[in-house]
Specification:
Keywords: 4Fe-4S, DNA damage, DNA repair, Glycosidase, Hydrolase, Iron, Iron-sulfur, Metal-binding. The protein contains 13 helices and 8 strands. By secondary structure, it is α+β, with helices and mostly antiparallel strands. About 40% of the residues are buried.
């Protein structure tokens, strides 16, 4: 490896020419981006792809252009706009953080101050401090871990290698343009130093890469094999009455917390009876994958014959399935009112909509 102290200079020169254009970014070399937009994008990007986030980010910033606007929004409206993005604890923390910042008058401009806000951990606080305030903080996401593991040929498997990778990344972080440097490292990992088939021939810092010199770049970083996810089961009830559908707002904490949903049981640790008198009929089975477990959800549907003991009746003309989290949208696809019900009664979904 050549002198690693020149890596930031070479990488920034590449970034100035090839930076991705993203709606939350400032152009390379210009004044740092708006802290609100940086914060919002970083929260949305946690465990979610750039492609999935763009439309949500643009809708949020159109509805709520400032953190004060977002702080003043109703919880239900924010949760509905977040629906489908997954990991709903992020949305609950987003609301709490926006209100804390609005009360303070502005975002703190240091990593320590940012880390004290709801929902902002070590990575996010460093990212906002570097990108929005040009603080020389070390920003290490999955892309950066991969780049650093290859640069230094770190063969300890993840997640055990994380402390070593952070220390090595800290040794590279420059005092000059740290925000652009952080984004350059992310872009390098996302576009060239990719998980599979890295494009080493066009990498701007390939002369420094120990893994390339050893011919093992594509094998790094190594990862400890994941354990199979346990399978849970549960039941959801979708009831209809007089042009309305039975829904509930889930508890603010826990799985799918604070979201609009259908009454359900079993999969979240609860043990509840059907929510209303009815001749409940099974209409299908939904498969859904959360972060830590897989779920088989039996979907029951009926016209209600008595008053519900749980939830509330929402008029169908005002009911928007788009406001439901992914799991509940899959259930709705099986149990729409009889005139809309699809011919098939079995549906298997993929991993989209992971939540916590």
């Amino acid at each position: 490896m050549r002198d690693p102290r020149v890596i930031p200079t070479e990488l920034l020169a590449w970034y100035d020419r090839h930076a991705r254009r993203l709606p939350w970014r400032a152009p390379p070399g210009q004044a740092p981006a708006d802290p609100y937009r940086v914060w919002l994008s970083e929260v949305m990007l946690q465990q979610t792809t750039v492609a999935a986030v763009k439309s949500y980010f643009e809708r949020f910033t159109s509805l709520w252009p400032t953190v004060q606007n977002l702080a003043a929004a109703g919880d239900a409206q924010v949760m509905a706009e977040w629906a489908g993005l997954g990991y709903y604890a992020r949305a609950r923390n987003l609301i709490a953080c926006a209100r804390a910042v609005a009360a303070m008058g502005a975002f703190p401009d240091t990593r320590e101050g940012l880390a004290a806000l709801p929902g902002i951990g070590a990575y996010t606080s460093a990212a906002i401090a570097a990108i929005a305030f040009d603080r020389p903080e070390t920003v290490v996401d999955g892309n950066v871990e991969r780049v650093v593991a290859r640069l230094f040929a770190v063969q300890t498997p993840l997640p055990g290698a994380k402390p070593e990778l952070v220390t090595l990344a800290q040794g590279l972080t420059p005092a000059r343009r740290p925000g652009d440097y952080a984004q350059a490292m992310m872009d390098l990992g996302a576009t060239i130093c990719t998980p599979r088939s890295p494009a080493c021939g066009i990498c701007p810092i390939n002369d420094h890469c120990a893994a390339r010199a050893l011919g093992i770049a594509a094998d790094l970083p190594r990862k400890t094999p994941k354990q199979p996810k346990p399978l849970r089961s549960g039941t959801a009830w979708i009831g209809f009455a007089d042009g309305a559908v039975l829904v509930e707002t889930r508890p603010s904490k826990g799985l799918l917390g604070g979201t609009l949903a259908f009454p359900s049981t079993g999969w979240d640790g609860s043990d509840l009876p059907p929510p209303a008198p009815a001749d409940w009929q099974q209409v299908g089975l939904v498969r859904h994958v959360f972060t830590h477990f897989a779920l088989d959800l039996t979907v029951m549907s009926a016209r209600l014959t008595g008053e519900p003991a749980r939830g509330r009746l929402a008029p169908l003309h005002a009911f928007s399935p788009a406001a439901l989290p992914g799991l509940m949208r899959k259930a709705w696809a099986l149990a729409r009112p009889p005139t809309d019900r699809p011919a098939t009664t079995r549906h298997h979904g993929g991993p989209a909509g992971n939540s916590s």
